[in-house]
Amino acid sequence: MSQDGITRLETPLSAFRGVGPDRAFQLRRLGLVTLLDLFLHRPRRYEDRRRLLPIRDLRLDAAATIHGRIRALGVRKLRKGNKSVFEMAVEDGTGRVICRWWNLPFMQNYFRAGEDVFVYGKPTSLKPAAMDHPEVETVDESGEAAVHLNRIVPVYPLTEGLTQRWLRQFLWEKVAAHATEVPDRWPSRCLPGEIPRALAIRHLHCPESLEDAELGRQRLALDEFIALQLELRGRRRRLEAHARGIPCSGDNRWMKPFLRVLGFRLTDGQTEVLREIRHDLGGEHPMRRLLQGDVGCGKTVVAACAALMTLEAGHNAAIMAPTEILAEQHHRNFSRWWEGIPVDIVLRTGSQKGEAKQASGVAKRPRLFVGTHAIIEGGFAMDDLGLVIIDEQHKFGVQQREALLKKGRFPHLLIMTATPIPRTLGLTLYGDLDVSVIRQMPGGRGTLRTHVREARHLPKVWRFVSEELAKGRQAYVVYPRIEDSGKPGLKAVTQEFERIREALRPARVRMMHGRLPADQKQSTIEGFRRGEVDVLLATSVIEVGVDVPNATVMVIESAEQFGLAQLHQLRGRIGRGSHASHCILVGDLRMGDAKERLSILEQTRDGFEIAEADLRFRGPGELIGKEQSGVPDFKFADLRSDLQLVHRARAAADRILDGGQGSLDPSGHRARASTD
After folding, report:
1. Helical H runs in 288-446?
2. Would you state the torsion angle of the CA atoms of residues 432, 544, 473, 515, taken in this order, to the nearest 10 degrees?
């Protein structure tokens, strides 16, 4: 790779002919500043303009591209107010389609009768055939036509003032002239069998087939995954090179009485995970382990055992939970389980500022710190920290996790989640962690059935809930909002409280949401636990930390507003006792894919299966969590479908690190793959 080639990839687009200040500004709005930026501008789709669909063969709601001529066009004013519709009739010899744009009268300035156009969209009706707001591109019969006709044509993201034809032509020219100068980022011997990056760029923008286009995307996605895996695996190697594990495997002197107090035997799955954790806690390097397990599988008991091992070894431990409700539940459970064991349990939340000062003249006792993010505040010290446990990890950001670890000197780390993580996402976000999975559920629990209903069935739903309450059971009613947002059909807790209280009279109904004062939330939860409250009307704040075995019914209204993983987590609040339980999802089943999505919860209680479905339907955001940071912003990688690419990237990253080979950064400069 010549120095000239490297600098050419870094050339500002404004230096090229035809890119004046206005055009450069438009490109910059798309993040396109250099030639390499241009090459990495991913098409949002492709049109096979070798095989266009005749208008007569259009199908309702099926996207298609047609090629025809504009026969008539004009703006029509609507009767009410200032609204209008711009309509354009396009014919291809087999039929006519009406293209419509609502309240965009200026669209008439872009087209003329007699022009040939490509039209892409979904028909909204067939008699007559019509499309609302389709994408339209005019056909120029100049010498540039080969770029836009009779081939697999890329369609790019645009910005105001930038046309599809201009950007496609510009890219075609620059790829033809300079794509061969794009270097590979990694030594070729570390990527056996992979096509060169330069060829991937050509496949991306000038594919001879749709398979070529996908091959180009995959190669560029592989580069993104490799860069991430180098960071993750390099981080793990640096940890193991510079940190020695604190001996925290314990001696069982407190473990045996604790297990007797539990009153039940651990499942085989819990026992196997504890073996892995004990091995790590006594190992040469600090433990870095992710524990996945479905709702109700017994992760809290595993966390208690891991903490007890650390305390037996004379070191302190900390567990951080995302809500005060969950932190207080952990504190209550551990205090009950460990009664008689000489350890101190300190609760630290926004409203509970425990310090657990040691009394003078008394032998120092090991301490377990339980809290919310309040335990990572700068003024709160936790000395001799041997183990850090993070519960419901997807509710925390990477920075919060690191802040907690920095409270000690390379403590062991156990991260737990009740939202099972699909393999692709797990290897991408947690590739530097070892993974344990508990799949087995404790015995002695009743059945849990899920039912999907439309809002018109609510009277029958409330009758069923009343029947369950009459048997002495308790119920949750969940809404997506605290207050009315003004959006039709989207219900809120405060708005529905009186209606529910009337529908379920004489049941004792209390309200629970995140804006209530901490003491009011606590008293409400305690009243529900003691059976003094029959129905808890709540938002998703009860998603974690509420364990009431007598609660056997959950009604979730506006259920289509929730992700599958969150709905699965919510319904995990019931089915914890020996009685049969019912989760009733009430929603607008006509909305998008709501019926298909919600039916998955009727069919399975397997959290891993549900997480994979959530990833397919909604992408990674729902599973990563709103609080996550440090998540890569991929251009080419698709976390829904690229599991095999992640495996290839992990293998390539190991080859790069093992060989000590340098890599090239995106512009082609040599960069060292350091392990220090």
Report:
1. 299-312, 324-337, 398-405, 423-429
2. -170
- A 10 A CB-CB count for 579 gives 18
Indicate the DSSP class of residue 577: S
Phi-psi region of 466 (alpha: psi -120 to 50; beta: other; left: phi over 0): alpha
Structural domain boundaries in the chain: 51-150, 255-438, 448-624
Please tell me if the domain spanning 255-438 has the same topology as the one spanning 448-624.
Answer: yes
**20 token code pair:** 């004046």
CATH of domain 255-438: 3.40.50.300
Distance, C-alpha 461 to centroid of its chain: 32
Q: State phi, psi for 438 to the nearest 5 degrees.
A: -105, 115
CA atoms within 13 A on the CB side of 270: 20
Q: What is the pLDDT of residue 457?
A: 94
Look up residue 278 and give its two tokens.
């004990």
Where does residue 256 rank: exposed (0-12), middle (13-18), buried (19+ CB within 10 A)? exposed
CATH 3.40.50.1010 holds for 448-624 = no
Give the three-state DSSP class for 70: strand
Distance, in Å, from the CA atom of 629 to the CA atom of 402, rounded to the nearest integer, reads 12
CB distance 240 to 185 below 8 Å: no
List pLDDT tens digits, range 507-518.
999 998 888 888
- Distance, in Å, from the CA atom of 201 to the CA atom of 668, rounded to the nearest integer, reads 14
Interval 189-240: pLDDT, tens: 899 999 999 999 999 999 999 999 999 999 999 999 999 999 888 888 998 8
Residue 333: φ, ψ to 5°: -65, -50
User: Residue 556 pairs with which residues in a beta bridge?
Assistant: 478, 585
pTM of the model: 0.77
295 by DSSP, 3-state: which?
A: coil
Number of H helices, E strands in the chain: 21, 24
User: What is the reported pLDDT for 360?
Assistant: 46
Q: Which of 607, 534, 600, 548 is nearest to 576 (CA)?
A: 548
The Cα 277–Cα 307 span in angstroms is 10
Domain 51-150 has CATH 3.30.460.10: no
Angle at 524 between CA 522 and CA 526, to 5 degrees: 70
Q: For 78-128, where are the E strands, in sequence order?
A: 84-91, 96-102, 116-121, 123-126
pLDDT of residue 143: 54
Rounded Cα distance, 153 and 168, in Å: 9
Question: For 628-660, what is each residue's pLDDT tens digit?
Answer: 445 577 899 988 889 899 999 999 999 999 985
Give every strand in the sheet of 509-512, ordered side by side: 448-453, 581-586, 551-557, 474-478, 535-538, 509-512
DSSP tag of 614: H
Which residues of the chain are modeled with pLDDT < 70?
1-6, 81, 141-145, 353-363, 393-395, 397, 444, 485-489, 545, 621-631, 660-676
Residue by residue, DSSP assigns 296-331 as: TS-HHHHHHHHHHHHHHTT-EEEEE-SSHHHHHHHH
Given a contact cutoff of 8 angstroms between Cβ atoms, the answer to whether 611 and 623 are in contact is yes
**The two structure tokens encoding residue 354:** 């425990």
> Can you name the residues that pair with 387 across neighbouring β-strands?
317, 412
Cis peptide before 506 (omega within 30 of 0): yes
Q: What whole-number distance in Å separates Cα of residue 573 and Cα of residue 553? A: 9
Supply the pLDDT for residue 3: 44
